[in-house]
Amino acid sequence: MTAATPSRNRPVDSIDRAVATAVTSPGTAPAEVYRIRVAGRLDRRWSSWFDGFQVDAEEDGSTSLTGAVADQAALHGLLTRVRDLGLELICVTRETG
Amino acid sequence: MVGSLIETKFFVPALRRGHVSRPEPLHLLEQAADARLTLVSAPAGFGKSTLLAEWLAGAAAAGRGVAWVSLDDQDRDPAAFLTYVVAALQRVLAGVGAAALELLGSSPVRTEAVLTTLLNELASTSGEVWLVLDDYHLVDGPEIGEAMVFLIDHLPSHVHVVIGTRADPGFPLSRFRARGQLVEVRAADLRFSEREAAAYLAGSGVELTPDDVTALTARTEGWIAALQLAAVSLRGREDASDFVRRFAGDDRYVVDYLIEEVLAHQPEEVRDFLLRTSVLARLSASLCDAALSRSDSDDLLAALERSNLFVVPLDDRREWFRYHQLFADVLRARLLSEQPQEVPLLHDRASRWFEQHDSPHEAIEHAVAGRSFDRAARLMEDAAPSIRRDRQDAVLLGWLGRLPERTVGNSPVLAVFAGYSRMLVGDFEGAEDRFVQAERVLSSVVEGEKAPWRHGVELRTLPATIAVYRASIAQAQGDVERTVLHARSALRLAGPSDHQARGGGAGFLGLAAWARGDVAGALESFSEAVASLHAGGNLVDELTSTVILADLCVAAGRPRRARRLYDEALRVAEEHGAAVARATADLHVGLSELDLEAGNRDAAAGHLQVSSDARGPLGMPESHYRWFVARAALARAEGALSDAIGFLDRAEPLYHGGFFPDVRPIGAMRARIWIAEGDLQAAADWARTRDLSPVDEAEYRREFEHLTLARLLLASGTPGEAVGLLARVRDDAESAGRGGSLLEIRMLQALARRAEGDVPQATALLAEALTSAPEAAGYAQLFLNEGATMADLLRRLAEGGGPGSQVAAQLRRADGSVTPGAAPSHAGVLSERELQVLRLLDTELSGPEIARQLFVSQNTLRSHTKHIFTKLDVGSRRAAVVRGRERGLL
Fold it and tell me: DSSP alpha helices (H): ranges in B425-538?
């Protein structure tokens, strides 16, 4: 849940934050950073909906969502949100490892 | 669970004003109305539910049944999912579902048994029915997927499944496609064409030029949700073309852009209302008032509905609404980014409202969503007793997974449940850790201080509950001593009205006694356990335990007492009918075994028939290994030895050890038949793989195998080796009071002496066996199975006129080759359904009227009637009624 995440301090670089979270939560596997590209332009404000992922407009008119996920289940949760908004999925890539 | 079903989920969505009929996709659906599976699969906002509602409004008008369920993510648990499925069907098919719901109330839920029961009942209905599962993507997963495939594969031809989903379900669609069992409607079929878009916009009061319509359709790609939003913005606008041009030239996410437009034109108050209420999965005026601390939500909701702003009514009374999921997501995302601090407050107030309105499930959902975990824990503690009573353990376990570890650890009740869930998956160490944790937290409360957790019945019985779980773990680990220790402590800790803990404690004491071979002790403890189950209103467990009690009676040499238990249990079961069908079927298998043992093969066969009737035409669910064991015994008694082996082969994979000692291993039963067939090599191979030897020490666990080995030794012509073994086994059985075993052992001792050539001594031993057993006549088949040698000994004894001669004569009469067997006298030969039919035959009702009253087809009724005629040996309805009266069935 991101309900309690203050989003006024934006923009926080989501990758740095994700790495910091991974380092400070011992006992969990290191978080992987993923980039999800969807067609069309998404407003920055969607960041908190997508678990704090950074929302960037790409030159070709698509939008990329970048951030760290705790595990594969969390990634699938985000993809479900993409689906539920009726967004067209272009690709998913892993940016780490 | 039945009590807590959310009614609005069964509501077929109402068609909106200005809704555009979709002849093309509708045609796709209607064309294949008889398909087994119809799949409407497309992303959010493509009008799936509306299309289904329109199609089915037509079907319902034509008198067909529509069982609709709007699924939500609470239904991801298979038991919850199936409960809604069954309840929805129950609404359109009277008389269907009670038995399946009863099975859903037992733990662990056996999905296949539930489905089999449901399918059997569906098979006996007539009339077309559509089961509609809308928003199936919210529940799809391996377990529910497997259940759906089983259901679809076995559906009677008049029942159809319709699925509305955002993602293709995880079942083998290609197989259904290849068999022509699948009709699909997909996004491409659902996109609005320009013509449809024009009609829709005109219907919404929006005037556009053809060029504008073209531009709008292209920009939205025929996505209905977007067109709908555009229509809201366009209504009453002078500059429609400008709007369309700006929209078409913008590359933002369509819904973002349009909602921005809509919200920008709403009064501040409406905008705020929309954003804040978006956290609610469903809305009523009272709930919105509470969550937003206002008092005019009634007017606002009505206004939203009037202006077509996102809300979907969930009932006929305009009491409950929800937002269209797509819009709700967008609104929630906005709320989260604009006023994140508001979100937990809104959830908290909503949670309190649901708590006050007796909806613990939704109260807990909101507490968890608002991260009020301690509050959520208190709500779960409150809900625990009713959840346990309804045996919906899975629900509580699902909740636990959503709480942080610390919250679970700080609640004794929840920690014990967490331990129980570890126990179920075999993690006994993890379970024990949780129990210790709960005990520590409980004892850490300082005297006089108020503990934070709820002081309900769960907390009071917690120490006894922990002891029962520990006994269960010890039992699973084969540690008899610790099983007894914990079971005793459970009984000591449980109050007089803690039936669940009392039943558990007594049950495990009984199991421990049984594992030791102490049949008398086991009988006593199990009788207590059954009494507690009865007092706790736990009918299915009570009836199932009757079978165990009866087995113990037989082991103790008291088959008549076993029969009384079965008769009494059947009487109780009859009062509850289909709801306890599975237990009824088990009881008849037990009676079949008793009748067979007493030498009454016809009655034994009758009970097996009734047992499978009770389970319905789909045949045996997995657990019914014992039906095949009883069938094998019957085949053997009839001399069909290879059939008997065949039935045992079918029983074997169905056997799942479980809690009870395996006192009659299937392998040994098979070996006994090989010995009777003369295939001594096969039997010897079996004895070797079981590591059996004539010099083994006697122990109850191996008694049945040792008595099988003794028969092998006799048949192999080495009676001397059997004598020592039999003597040791006899001592063991005698000291533990196992009268049933003792009779069999003494009989084998007589045969051993006979094999050594000492006929007078053998006859004397047999006389002793028969006179010292209180109910030897109840074990006729035991003697018959031993063949000609035993028949000869019995004849000598009977003709000798000395002690035991009367019993011997009685046993000889049970042999069909001596005197014809007595006619079956048990009323249970007619199944319950047949008795019901017989009662209706004794009325003025016509055949079709009876069929209607029983909710069965005329064909089904005819087959029932045929069975009744055969069983009563009559040829007409009148004669059946007369014979029924004679037999006291009417």
Answer: 428-443, 457-460, 462-476, 480-493, 499-516, 519-535
